[in-house]
Design a protein that fits this description.
The protein has helices spanning 15-18, 77-88, 131-140, 148-161, 167-175; strands at residues 8-12, 26-43, 54-72, 94-103, 110-118, 142-143, 146-147. With 176 residues, the chain is an alpha+beta fold.
C-alpha cells in the first residue's frame, strides 16, 4: 500500500472517527459491507493493560458497518500509513487491509480504503462477549490513551453525530 500513488482513503469505525490524528482533505460518512463493528479486542496498551485489559472495537465477520472515510492527499499517503501502523498495530491485533466502502454521498461512490480488522487468531481477540463481561472490562480498562469508558462514550457520540445508533454501545454507555 505504501508503494501506491494517489490519494489514500482510510475507513474509521471507532476512535478514528472522533480522533483521526492525521491530516485529511475530505471526510464522508461511509458504509462497509461484510464486516461489523464489535467490542472484540482486549486492549493491553491504549485502553487497558495485560493485567487489567480494556475492550476496544474491531471489525469482525459479517454484517455491515457505518463509519467515516477520510481522504488523505497523495503527498501525505506514506506518512499517514506510518502513523496508522504505529497507532493501530502496537500489538499486531489488527490486520491492515483494503476494503471497498460506499460513501454516503450523491451517487454513492465506492472507494478502496485502508481499515483495520480484528485478527481472530491473535491472543487479544476477545470474540463475542456477554454484555456484562463487556461492561466489566470497559469499567476496569485504563491505558496510555486514557479510560476505556471515555473511548466508549466518545465513540457513541461520534455515531450519534452521524445520525444512527449502535444498540450494544449505547447500552454500555448508559451503564457507565
Amino acid at each position: 500500500m505504501t508503494g501506491e500513488k494517489g490519494d489514500l482513503w482510510v475507513f474509521g469505525y471507532g476512535s478514528l472517527m472522533w480522533r483521526p490524528g492525521f491530516d485529511f482533505v475530505e471526510r464522508a460518512q461511509a458504509r462497509l459491507i461484510g464486516l461489523h463493528r464489535a467490542l472484540c479486542v482486549f486492549s493491553h496498551v491504549h485502553r487497558g493493560t495485560p493485567e487489567r485489559p480494556g475492550l476496544v472495537l474491531g471489525l469482525d465477520r459479517g454484517g455491515a458497518c457505518r463509519g467515516i472515510a477520510f481522504r488523505v492527499a497523495a503527498a501525505n499517503r506514506a506518512a499517514t500509513i506510518q502513523y496508522l501502523r504505529e497507532r493501530e498495530q502496537v500489538t499486531s491485533v489488527y490486520l491492515e487491509v483494503e476494503r471497498v466502502v460506499t460513501l454516503q454521498q450523491p451517487g454513492e461512490p465506492r472507494v478502496r480504503a485502508i481499515t483495520y480488522i480484528a485478527d481472530r487468531g491473535h491472543a487479544q481477540y476477545a470474540g463475542r462477549l456477554k454484555p456484562d463481561e463487556q461492561l466489566h472490562l470497559v469499567r476496569q480498562g485504563h491505558g496510555h490513551s486514557g479510560a476505556n469508558r471515555d473511548y466508549v462514550k466518545n465513540t457513541v457520540a461520534a455515531i450519534e453525530e452521524q445520525g444512527f445508533r449502535d444498540a450494544n454501545l449505547h447500552w454500555l454507555a448508559s451503564q457507565l
